[in-house]
């Protein structure tokens, strides 16, 4: 099913907390977002004051924002890199570089 930017349905896997070995793990929780724009999803995840174009973010803050969006699966959507770059007032290669840093830190 192709992604229609008019109605983004974003299924997000959220990690479950480690459970005691005696308890049963029932998997990942799925969250659905129904919205007209990717921007709305990003604003629902990230504090909108950090996305204000007049706020100068440090590199660590940008990496943290991109990491949060990465964990929520935002970058699985077509066009997400360019839209997030625009929201953070940075260039697309910077978003890609931060994603690579995040991915390398996971390993």
TrEMBL record:
Name of the featured protein: HTH domain-containing protein
Transcriptional regulator DauR-like HTH domain boundaries: 42-100
Origin species: Priestia endophytica DSM 13796
PANTHER family the record matches: TRANSCRIPTIONAL REGULATOR DAUR (PTHR35568)
InterPro entries the record matches: DauR-like, DauR-like_HTH
